[in-house]
Amino acid sequence: MRRGWRLEIVDFAGLGRALDCFYPGRLALFRARKAKNLVTTTLRDTLNRQSGMYRVAAKISDEQVNALVGNFCRSSDGCLRTILWKRDATGAPASTQLPPEKFDTSHDQTGDGEPVIPLLCQEPCNLLVAECRKAVKLEGAAPSAPE
Ligand code: SF4
C-alpha cells in the first residue's frame, strides 16, 4: 500500500490472503518468478494479438513506444509495477527512458527504499495498449508538413 493505510495481520497466511485481495494474482506471479516459471509477453506480441478497435495499436513505431512507455509506466506517476517484459523479440527494453530500477524486482518503486514484495508487470496492461492506440490515432490525425 502506498500511503496512509495500515492493515494489522496476525500471520503469514493472513498476509497472503490480504495481498491476494488487494493485488489479485500478484503473489502467485511473484512465486512463479521465484520458481523460474514466469513467462513474460513482449509489447509487440500483446499489440499484435489485439482485435477490433485496438488492432491499429500495433502500428505504433518503436520510437513512439520508447517515449510512450517512458512516460506512461514511470513509477513517479503512480504505476508501481516492476516491468519484466521486453519491447519485442529482439529483447529491446520496454523503454530506454525509464531508470534501471524500474526493471529491478528488488527495488522499492515507491522510492521509500523499503524491502518489497514487487508488483510484477509480466505483460503490458490494457491501459498501455489503449495509450498505444491513442498515439497511433493522433499521429494519423496530425496535419502533414507542407511540401
Ligand atoms: S504496462 Fe501497465 S501495469 Fe505495466 S508498468 Fe506499464 S502502466 Fe504499469
Walk me through what this model shows:
A two-stranded parallel sheet has the order 1-2. The longest helix has 16 residues, at 126-141. The chain is an all-alpha fold. It is elongated. It contains five helices and two strands; from the N terminus they run ααααββα. Helix 4 packs across helix 5 (126-141). The protein has a single domain, classed as Alpha-Beta Plaits (2-Layer Sandwich). The structure holds iron/sulfur cluster. The site of iron/sulfur cluster (SF4) has 10 residues, from helix 5.
Bound ions, cofactors and other small molecules, one mention each: iron/sulfur cluster
Number of domains: 1
Order of helices and strands: HHHHEEH
Please name the CATH architecture.
Answer: 2-Layer Sandwich
CATH topology: Alpha-Beta Plaits
Distance between the termini: 54 Å
Q: How is the biggest beta sheet arranged?
A: 2 strands, parallel
Radius of gyration: 18 Å
Q: Which strands sit side by side, in order, in the main sheet?
A: 1-2
CATH class: Alpha Beta
What is the count of helical runs? Answer: 5
| Percent range for β-strand residues | under 5%
How much helix, percentage-wise, in residues? 25-40%
Number of strands: 2
Instruction: Give the integer mean of the pLDDT values.
Output: 93
Provide the structure class.
Answer: mainly alpha
Q: Point out poorly predicted stretches.
A: none
Shape: elongated
Write a concise keyword list for the protein shown above.
147 residues; mainly alpha; two-stranded parallel sheet; 5 helices; elongated; binds iron/sulfur cluster
